[in-house]
Specification:
The structure is a single chain. The chain is of the alpha+beta class. The strands form 6 sheets. Strands 6-7-8-10-9 form a 5-stranded mixed β-sheet. The protein has a two-stranded parallel sheet with strand order 1-15. Helix 10 (about 195-210) packs antiparallel against helix 11, helix 16 (about 355-375) crosses helix 22 and helix 23 (about 475-490) crosses helix 25 (about 530-540). The longest helix is centred in the N-terminal third of the chain and has 25 residues, at about 70-90. The chain is globular. It binds zinc ion (ZN). Zinc ion binds next to helix 20.
């Protein structure tokens, strides 16, 4: 249920007025006043159900993997990472940190769920409910904690137009915008968050002093310096060059999604992880088939005539040990691709890191229960982590297949992305998955995928679609999944059993319908015809009542995990 009534709101205002007028409370009085304020604060009544969407899950690693030196390095890296939590609390909202302190001080069993949900969301706005508040009535400022809470996007634009000399600083990825008197000022991150960054840098330097790996030592010292200088180029580049390390870290300001006002400001986060070299070797096996996979795509040459050399960014597999900040808020990250700096992307490429233990935890806690609800008993038994993991790997490498550039009827050459505009990601994400699945028979023929595991792949694929559809049936993100599901269903690859109210895969038809869909998507991209894509999404991008019912049936299955780190 969403909070919609205003009960208690006027009391809250009165309380703030009293505070503003300079009332002072003694310690005991302060406790009582916090409780009073809390009681008069409007809040949702279904906090328990909201919290139950996240199933507490241990995230751990095999301690035998590391020697003593590596363990000491790991400890220091975790301490550095924890500083990112502190910064992200300030970035995610203007009010979250104060609320957290109040709830901690109250230490009241009746507020335990609120505190936990506040921690999961890094603020009083529900990340699974379009950022609507679950404590208080204030909507989340689109600029989160990066800009003045009451500043509109129009005002910011107007201000910059009137003060072009301040544009660069105000729009900088690594600055916060504040109001001073009647003007806006930009405060660089290394100033704004200095008290949190200095200890982080210190821990990184201590880790650097302990490690015996030269590339890690160089990276950690450079990263420590960069956190304090606010220029991340050199250490981002050194991160790409890390080699032969088990223990690694990603730390600093990276993604800009938290800033929904302009998508300019980067949020701090950290991943501490252990490389899984054995698994990486297995993945590399796929890359040797990439050229042949491109050749066997079911389309004319012009839809697949791209040179694949240089497109293969290395795929890394790691075991997550600890995360902090942006990456820990709400739904947990399965994989990340860094750095974001375009200069380094051009010079050295990127690294893609899959967090295998996080994927496995989500699989067990979410995908398995989903499959038991939506699939026939026999098909549910075929759902496997092996298939889930391999599908994701295939998806990632299959982004490279097809074409990136198109020539429009008027002769202009552009990217598929620009031609398909806002619909690009729905089509591209679907393409990567479907082209990967289309390649399964080829990979079986090559002996890379065992023939007797083919069923696991299609059943896991179907169960996975229901997992995605839960995140929203009526938005761009859900469309990429719906179009696959609807298309294959229409062609008979997935069959709904009315009596059992469950789906099963039709083994004969599914291959054929996947190939048809791969062909359709590759042609949509290769033609770059925006109107054709709109028509296609209009036809296949919407759920029918049956699907909505099935998704509704999943409401008691957790949406994600809430990690409990055991290091
Ligand atoms: Zn993708």
């Amino acid at each position: 249920m969403n909070l919609r009534n205003n009960h208690g709101f006027s009391i809250l205002i009165l309380f703030f007025l009293l505070l503003a007028m300079g009332f002072h409370f003694g310690c005991k009085g302060k406790q009582a006043s916090i409780k009073e304020k809390w009681e008069s604060t409007p809040k949702v009544t279904d906090i328990h159900e909201r919290l139950a969407q996240f199933v507490p899950t241990e995230i751990f690693y095999d301690k035998n993997l590391l020697n003593d030196v590596q363990k000491q390095v790991l400890e220091k890296l975790i301490l550095a990472a924890k500083q990112m939590d502190k910064i992200f609390w300030k970035q995610a909202s203007h009010t979250g940190l104060a609320l957290k302190k109040e709830l901690e001080e109250m230490d009241d069993p009746s507020t335990k769920d609120f505190l936990r949900y506040l921690e999961i969301n890094f603020g009083p706005y529900d990340r699974l409910d379009e950022n609507n508040p679950f404590i208080g009535l204030e909507a989340k400022p689109p600029g989160a904690g990066f800009y003045p809470a009451d500043m509109s996007g129009d005002y910011f634009q107007g201000y910059i137009t009137g003060a072009p000399d301040k544009k660069k600083a105000l729009e900088d990825t690594y600055s916060v915008v504040k109001r001073k008197d009647n003007s806006l000022i930009a405060i660089p991150y290394n100033e704004e968050y200095r008290e949190d960054l200095e200890p982080a840098a210190q821990y990184l330097k201590e880790a650097a002093a302990i490690t015996t790996n030269t590339s890690l030592k160089k990276f950690l010292n450079q990263r420590a310096a960069d956190l304090l200088s606010n220029d991340y180029y050199q250490s981002d580049s050194d991160w790409i060059d890390l080699e032969d390390n088990l223990v690694e870290i990603v730390i600093g300001p990276f993604e800009v999604y938290e800033d929904s006002l302009y998508g300019l400001k980067a949020a701090y986060e950290a991943f501490v992880y252990i490389n899984d070299f054995e698994e990486m070797e297995k993945i590399k096996g796929y890359l040797k088939y990439l050229d042949e996979m491109q050749k066997t795509l079911p389309v004319a040459q012009k839809y697949k005539d791209q040179d694949l050399a240089g497109l293969q960014s290395p795929l890394n597999v790691a075991i997550e040990v600890f995360t902090a900040g942006d990456s820990k808020a709400g739904v947990q990250t399965l994989a990340f691709i860094l750095p974001n700096d375009e200069r380094i992307r051009e010079e050295k490429g990127t690294k893609k890191v899959f967090l295998k233990n996080v994927m496995e935890a989500k699989f067990d806690q979410i995908l398995v229960p989903i499959s038991k609800t939506v699939l026939s008993k026999e098909d549910a038994e075929n759902v496997s982590f092996w298939a889930y993991f391999n599908e994701i790997v295939l998806h990632e490498i299959c982004h490279a297949l097809g074409v990136n550039y198109v020539t429009l009827p008027d002769g202009t050459k552009t990217t598929v992305n620009k031609a398909l505009k806002e619909n690009y990601s729905a089509i591209e994400e679907a393409k990567a998955t479907v082209v990967g699945l289309h390649s399964i028979p080829f990979l079986i023929e090559k002996g890379w995928i065992p023939k007797d595991r083919e069923k696991e792949i299609y059943t896991t694929y179907l169960a996975g679609m229901f997992r995605s559809m839960r995140f929203g049936l009526h938005e761009a993100h859900g469309m990429g999944t719906l179009l696959q599901y609807n298309f294959i269903r229409e062609q008979g690859g997935f069959v709904f059993d009315e009596a059992l109210e469950q789906f099963h895969v039709d083994w004969e038809t599914v291959r054929y319908s996947i190939t048809n869909l791969a062909q359709t998507l590759l042609i949509l991209e290769g033609d770059g015809n925006y109107e054709n894509v709109v028509r296609f999404l209009d036809r296949f991008g919407h759920p029918d009542a049956l699907t909505e019912n099935m998704v509704a049936k999943l409401k008691d299955i957790p949406v994600d995990i809430a990690p409990e780190y055991k290091y």
